[in-house]
Amino acid sequence: MRAAPRIAIVGAGIVGSAIAYFLAARGASVTLIDAAGPGAGVTDRAFGWINVALADPDGPGANFKHRVIDDYRKLDDRLHGRLNIAWQGALSWSDDPGRTEARFADLKRADHRVTLLDTAQVARLEPTLKSPPALAIFAPEDGMMRPGVSARVLAAAAMEAGAALRVGQAVDNIEPLPTGGVRLWLGNDRAEFDRVVLAAGAAVADLCRPLGLILPLEASPSILTRFRSPVPILNRIVESPEFEARMETPNYLVTAESYQGDRSDCGPEVVATGLRKALATGLTGGEALTLDSVQVGMRPVQVGCGPIVGRVPGSPCLYIAAFHPGVILAATIGGLVAQDMLDETVPTELEGLAPR
Fold this sequence. Notes:
This is FAD-binding oxidoreductase. This protein is of the alpha/beta class. Helices cover about 25% and strands about 30% of the residues. It contains eight helices and 19 strands. α1 packs parallel to α5 and α2 (about 70-80) packs across α8 (about 325-345).
């Protein structure tokens, strides 16, 4: 009987924790490593929208578009509902009804399960909208979750399956060994593994650079803002020209926004103030919102390519899993990576995604 491979996962966000769970569930000897702990990095600053229909049909992850929702449902079933995903769907529209209609037609051609709603139908779904749009796209199967919490659930499930968790030390250096395997340098400590998966988001590019591997990956900032709300004022995700928002809990509303930099006219607090005004203008009850927190997350966005997933050329014991959108693709890619590493067969969906 072959010994279970010793595999380290560097990065315990939603992607790394999902990979750790799928590997441990199949009997691998897994060590999950993160300096801060599961779900404590950019994952905790993610919006938490599980969607395919309203994503770019030609963008990153398009190969997986027909699997994402089903894979998350299957994963949550395996975990007995512990991911706590709310499958309430999502509404999206443009300020130009013609563009909304054209977008809907594109999504239907791509075989997405979406519906085009008129003003009255939108108002029935979201009665707090002060000015419901003439047309909106409804994706009834979209879900929403708290990504940081979900990452911690996945890490806990991995440990229940036998994985070890190592926190409090960052990986400083990676050394592929000439005899096979990989040595990790963690402060004054060293640890050797048969294989290592780098799933530490934007930091993966920095870890790979000393190896002579330049990844087409950059850190792209985004802002997650939380507002306290006396009562729930949305039923599902709403993506309008003015804001992208959902209820995180009955008394907290969260929004996501791109971050344009540290200039005084577009810093996080300025963005949060503008969002509060937009919510007060657009939603009945929005005027009662009060700012709770505003956080900046650095998303690992690939440049000119799809998700970066696969073995490093010349170092087959080193594996990369770095991409955006991590929340959307974690359940699907997590299972595929486990299949790739343990079955020694690259799944069709991952072909062509390995770093070059």
